[in-house]
Amino acid sequence: MAGWLNLEGKGALVVGGGGLGGATARSLAEAGARTVVVDRDEGALEAVAQAAADSGAELATLHADVSTPDACRAVVARCVDMVGTPRAFLHAVGRNDRRPVLELGDDDWEAILRLNLSTAWWLGQEVGRRMVAEGAGRIVFVSSVSALLAHPDHAPYAASKGGINQMMRVMAREWAPHGVTVNAVGPGYIETDLTRAYLDRDGHREALESLVPAGRLGAPEEIADAATFLLSDRAGFVTGQCLYVDGGRTLV
Ligand SMILES: NC(=O)c1ccc[n+]([C@@H]2O[C@H](COP(=O)([O-])OP(=O)(O)OC[C@H]3O[C@@H](n4cnc5c(N)ncnc54)[C@H](O)[C@@H]3O)[C@@H](O)[C@H]2O)c1
Question: What is the SS3 assignment for 53-114?
């Protein structure tokens, strides 16, 4: 499997080492990529490094908060120092604020848009600039089924994920002539730290499962498999796509 992906020895940058970013970082490291994982939570970084070590892989961690353009550029520069211009970049930071439109203030809107979309722009632009100069690279953003569906209490989140998909498509078009592919994965309902507390409350888990044709929630490793494929040599002619990994949720 690792040889098939041809990631051996290549630099990889994963920003966001939580459930989905962490699983993908581990998958990239297991495929032999020299992987750097960035998170503002040291506990998350330790957990990813330990999980990689448990499966016999190694990765480097970088403790940083990516909430500003300068911080994003500094993270990319530091990654380049560590492993060279990354061949693979995954953006996997984001959060939701589950409240109705009429209960959200200006700051709430801006906070979600900044974390979910602006950091993708700052990091994607900086990584893309370097990949274009090298004539090679793979970028994947973590979108969501919320890019397509109108879930109540998801307005800023849905806007940020719809924005990710269109930003991704324009980057893909501009950078295709330079050997750089840009795609997204759109997870359905996946159990991670982001969603666990919500799922454990008030029958939410059963309610969500009933909306998924496959009849179950997804696992972080199922997102990691799709992201790893899109970040590998095997996906060289795939660009501008959002690959929904959702057990059929967007079919109904
Ligand atoms: N879990 C799901 O069901 C699901 C579904 C669809 C989309 N997504 C998307 O997947 C992405 C990753 O989500 P997850 O489920 O892995 O969540 P998570 O909470 O497990 O991980 C997110 C990580 O981002 C880090 N982070 C947050 N702000 C940061 C900052 N300013 N600087 C550095 N690190 C920061 C957090 O510390 C955390 O480790 C998000 O964009 C989310 O919207 C998740």
Answer: HHCCCCCEEEECCCCCHHHHHHHHHHHHHHHCCCCEEEECCCCCCCCCHHHCCHHHHHHHHH
Q: Is residue 129 part of a domain?
A: yes
* Any ligand 1 atom below 6 A from CB of 144: yes
How many domains does the chain contain in total? Answer: 1
Locate the ligand 1 atom nearest the alpha carbon of residue 64 and give its number: 33
* pLDDT, tens digit, 9 for 90 and up, residues 206-240: 999 999 999 999 999 999 999 999 999 999 999 99
**At residue 1, does pLDDT exceed 70?**
no
Helices (DSSP H) in 135-232: which residue ranges? 155-175, 193-199, 204-209, 220-230
Mutational test site, ligand 1, from 61, 93, 117, max ligand atoms within 8 Å of CB: 93
126-145 residue pLDDT tens: 999 999 999 999 999 999 99
First to last CA, the chain: 33
Please, are residues 124 and 169 in contact by the beta-carbon 8 Å criterion? no
Q: What is the domain-level CATH number for residue 181?
A: 3.40.50.720
**Is the CB of 39 inside a 6 Å radius of any atom of ligand 1?**
yes
Q: How many residues are recorded in the chain?
A: 252
Nearest to 36, CA basis, from 80, 67, 5: 80
157 in catalytic set: yes
Task: Judge whether 86 lies within some domain.
Answer: yes
pTM of the model: 0.98
Q: Token pair of 50, please?
A: 């330990």
